[in-house]
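Problem 12. The chain below contains 158 residues. Write out its predicted structure in token notation.
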Amino acid sequence: MTAARPAADLHRALRDRGATLAVAESLTGGLLSAALVDVPGASATYRGGVTAYATELKAGLLGVDEGLLAVHGPVHPVVARQMAQGVRRLLGADYGLATTGVAGPAEQDGRPVGTVHLGWAGPDEAGTDSLLLSGTRETIRQDTVQAALQLMLGHLAR
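Solution.
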């Protein structure tokens, strides 16, 4: 399954609102951005993305609270929300969307493989969604992209 349809639907929803999107990725390592730019005309709504794989980049680039990272590590729902808020601010977008989690092959900081946190941020609110996915590293990363696109679509439909 590809992300083409949900990504196209997301661009359409953003265009209907006259809005833009930026993404911050850790777990997905650029796959979410790739899915978004695969859609013709993406430049009308997609501002760009930041792949902040290293923990210190989450704080330094995206403004994630260093104390939160020190206590909980990078795989935490509040980290995902702060990443989304940070990329929204950094890239001047109306909405931000973020991914963080554990794709494997081993657990990280006591969190099992398949732990995923998605963050979103808009002009007036922000939130998170947490998942426990299964499968290979590749499957977890691809399923995370699908879930992130669906999360943002659902938020825009409200």
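Discussion. The beta strands are 21-25, 46-51, 95-101, 115-121, 126-132. Students who got a different answer should revisit the alignment rule from Section 12.3.
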